[in-house]
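Structure in, sequence out. Go:
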């Protein structure tokens, strides 16, 4: 999503829309809806570009270095989102006795029978069946465990 609202003709500053930048975030609650990206001091910025920047008041001033860090963070968040969406972290719990059964039991401090009982539901959201092999999507299983008071 493009959050850049304006770039000055001589590229001394750039205006970004913080509401679009942090869309979907409930953490953004400020009165400042714009950020000015520049390496100029606040005094130099207001003395040179005060009329151009008036429509964007109130705003915050951030350095170009900070903006690059924000872009890098967004790229990493986007990469992680797609990785999580398509590459679930799974581990197998097979119906026969194999060492992998003990891995799941030891990770969560649950017995094998408890894990099987929990994952036997027909529409269990954290189980992926591959023949008789039961694959448990770790993140979804952990979310399920954290939401439970009793198993």
């Amino acid at each position: 999503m493009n959050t850049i609202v304006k770039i000055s003709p001589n590229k001394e500053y750039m205006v970004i829309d913080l509401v679009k930048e942090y869309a979907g975030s409930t953490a953004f609650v400020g009165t400042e809806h714009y950020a000015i990206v520049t390496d100029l001091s606040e005094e130099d910025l207001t003395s040179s570009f005060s009329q151009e920047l008036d429509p964007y008041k109130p705003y915050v001033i951030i350095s170009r270095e900070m903006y690059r860090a924000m872009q890098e963070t967004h790229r990493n968040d986007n990469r992680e989102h797609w990785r999580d969406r398509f590459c679930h972290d799974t581990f197998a719990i097979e119906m026969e006795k194999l060492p992998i059964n003990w891995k799941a039991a030891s990770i969560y401090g649950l017995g094998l029978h408890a894990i099987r009982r929990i994952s036997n539901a027909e529409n269990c959201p954290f189980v992926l069946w591959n023949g008789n092999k039961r694959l448990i999507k770790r993140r979804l299983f952990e979310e399920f465990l954290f939401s439970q008071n009793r198993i």
